[in-house]
Amino acid sequence: MASPLRILISNDDGVFAEGIKALAMEAARRGHSVTVVCPDQERSATGHGLTLQSPIRAERADGLFGEGITAWACSGTPSDCVKLGLGKLLETPPDLVLSGINHGPNLGSDVMYSGTVAAAMEGTLEGLPGMAISSACFDWRQFDGAAERALSLAEEALAAGWPEGLLLNLNVPAVPPEQIGPVRWCRPGVRRYVDQFDQRCDPRGRTYYWLAGEVLNDVVTAGAGPQDWPTDVAQVGGGGMALTPLQPELFWRGALPPVAIKA
């Protein structure tokens, strides 16, 4: 059993989501001190958005979680929730920031849109270890296996020395716990979508659009990461857990086009 940790948990599926309850209860079961600060309703695909033009409200929601878990439902985005937790609601900084368990995958280039990943990244930006956890199916509701494995991986990484600036993105296949395959380091795949917008007409004859594209997995293989690592999409598709190391830095390190640069 790892030494007790102070853990801040958030998500983008909202305070009523089963995934965050499973993660918080597993952390508490292991003896960790758990504080949940998450959106008061679903705010998926909000990326790293922050609320700047309206107030943010937070109300206690302890009753939705297990005994001993302090919980807040926040009117803001996932990133708002973690910033508010770290800046105001927690008396002591946490040892670890977890986000999830998301109801659906966060694979490949989709991490750019993910509120789940953004919440964990907010912890990373503050110099804290952060991990995002996702279940690779939107309809799957058995989160205990993913919660157990996520906590074990996080405890192991902390014990080994978690490098500052590292965000871990874990995707778990949507299968019963005994069928979850091994974890592997993965590089991010690139996911592309076709027919992204469905054009429709409302009862008053006005046109509107619904974002609902069909994903094409691993259309292009990303150049980042060791080439002998599988992509996260391929690893989860094969029944294993994909653990992808990410970082906030966006600086390009590849070759550059020969444009004229003036001093």
Tell me what you see in this structure:
It is a single chain. The chain is globular, with a radius of gyration of 19 Å. Helix 1 crosses helix 4 and helix 2 runs parallel beside helix 3. A nine-stranded mixed sheet has the order 3-4-2-1-5-6-7-13-8, with helices on both faces. It has a two-stranded antiparallel sheet with strand order 9-12. The protein has a two-stranded antiparallel ribbon with strand order 10-11. The chain has 263 residues and is α/β, with parallel strands linked by helices.
Key terms:
263 residues, globular, two-stranded antiparallel ribbon, nine-stranded mixed β-sheet, alpha/beta, 22% helix, 27% strand
Can you lay out the helices and strands and say which pair or pack?
Blueprint: E1 6-10, H1 18-29, E2 33-39, E3 58-60, E4 70-74, H2 78-89, E5 96-103, H3 115-125, E6 130-135, H4 144-160, E7 167-172, E8 183-185, E9 190-194, E10 197-201, E11 207-211, E12 214-220, H5 232-237, E13 241-246
Parallel strand pairs: 1-2, 1-5, 2-4, 5-6, 6-7, 8-13
Antiparallel strand pairs: 3-4, 7-13, 9-12, 10-11
Helix pairs in contact: 1-4, 2-3
